[in-house]
Amino acid sequence: MVCWLSFCRVKSSGHQHLDKNTSYVFVANHQGAFDIFLTYGFLNHNIKWIQKAPLRKLPFVGKASDIAGHIFVDNSSITSRINTMVEAKKILEGGVSLIIFPEGARTKNGKLGAFRRGAYRIALDMGLPIVPVTLNGPYDVMKRNTYTLHPSKLELTIHQPIPTKGLQKEDIATLMDQTKETIHSALWEKYK
Prior knowledge:
By secondary structure, the chain is an alpha/beta fold. It has helices at residues 2-5, 34-42, 61-68, 78-91, 118-126, 138-141, 172-185; strands at 9-13, 25-28, 47-52, 71-73, 97-100, 130-136, 153-158. It has a seven-stranded mixed sheet with strand order 1-7-6-2-5-3-4, sandwiched between helices.
């Protein structure tokens, strides 16, 4: 609804790749604040977010995320990170999926940044398929560190799930490269 109320045109594709009863780890590029509205509104899957711990302190956002059952990552220690993984495993039972921005922060220029390993570790530990998702347009709607809205076209592309059963920690780097290339392949030219 937020996308439409902001006069953004939305296109989504790739839903045929998903099974509603299967849990996945979705990994998506992070272009801007509208990534959240785009994925919530058009991914059409039961998802929980992994968010940075400081977001818990934001008025309304923190409380709403707690109520919705999202997971906050505390990177202050190894123990905190392990506790985050344990919490994620509990939530992902029963067909609920997880969505993570492996870049960790919104892009400054619309282009892909370096990926972090957390999403891949969770997927391997739980034997869940990873689904790359390409988001186009949120960068143009509301750039990082601004509150000015620029109605634009938004696009969400769901790619084929990548099975992780049987993979080892040594395979994470290859998996990261594969998902990054897949996400990059569907970016609009101006974001490549």
